[in-house]
Amino acid sequence: MPMSDRKLMLITGASAGIGEEFAKQYAELGWDLALTARRADRLEKLARDLEEKYQISSIVISQDLARANSVDTILKEIKEAGRHVDGVVNNAGYGLPGTFFNTKWKDQAAFMRVLFTAPIELTHKVLGGMAERGFGRIINVASLAGYTPGSNGHTLYASVKSGMIKFSESIQAEAEAAGYENVHCTALCPGFTWSEFHDVNGTREKTNEMPDWMWMEAAPVVEAGIRACERGQPVVVPGAVNKGLATLSKILPEPLGRAMVGAQSKRFRSTE
Ligand SMILES: NC(=O)c1ccc[n+]([C@@H]2O[C@H](COP(=O)([O-])OP(=O)(O)OC[C@H]3O[C@@H](n4cnc5c(N)ncnc54)[C@H](OP(=O)(O)O)[C@@H]3O)[C@@H](O)[C@H]2O)c1
To answer: Fewer CB in a 10 Å sphere around the end CB: N or C, the chain?
Structure first.
């Protein structure tokens, strides 16, 4: 027996930053939650707070998405709790400092798994049920970096985020073509957002030098993502500054774009 009539949103990387904010906003909208990340203590606390505040139910699943069987384990735990997945926010992520020359393959492979393979596998494994029930919401947290040219350091970040944008566009197009009108997929492309991201990748000192107008709080970023997904909009860039930068990336001649990003990237990317 399902423990609730409410819909269930599965959020990866819910223990901090943008993912935690997604949990708060979906709870406020009346969704039950399945929260996953590695830090169980943080997930438990968030779950209890939101259950109390919004009278929702939640499932906490501590998993490292770098592990090959993590997606199956997460989905198994949800099934064992008598629930199915109505929505997914593929949000977990981090930046891997260094260059492709000076990093280990095991670290690059784990990065690809957490930010690319796992979200794609998760999407694949929940889409069938969404199609059957005629309802689904998938938000893939990509990045403005998916629009800007690749640069020195954090090598696969821009590649992976660009891939998540194209992937989301294709899923939205496939759902529309198949007549699944209420199955929506959106790539959310934040620019610089206050979270633990730059503490984790060791660039906080550099990024603290960047002007305030380049930064957004997580709340409006998440609001933009939820709104766009409700509309069935395949890609959304939150905030006027980020929208301007995304447009600039599309219209600038490529060598000029590369030169501009190349000149700026040392302010937010570490090559060590
Ligand atoms: N902040 C920005 O400026 C910015 C800009 C554009 C895009 N983004 C994207 O936004 C998303 C969220 O980042 P954030 O800014 O909110 O950073 P954050 O505050 O550092 O949160 C990252 C989340 O990902 C989880 N995570 C990291 N590695 C994981 C792993 N191996 N397995 C499972 N969960 C893992 C972390 O949880 P645990 O450590 O507990 O596992 C945490 O909950 C990322 O995809 C990031 O690329 C961020």
So the answer is: N
Residue of 207, 213, 208 lying closest to 270 (CA atoms)? 207
Give me ligand 1 centre to Cα 215, in Å: 16
Nearest ligand 1 atom to alpha carbon 94:
47
Say which CATH superfamily domain 8-267 falls into.
Answer: NAD(P)-binding Rossmann-like Domain (3.40.50.720)
Ligand 1 centroid – CA 194 distance (Å): 11
pLDDT tens-digit map of 220-259: 999 999 999 999 999 999 999 999 999 999 999 999 989 8
The CA–CA distances, whole Å, from 209 to 193, 204, 206, 245, 266 equal 14, 9, 6, 19, 11
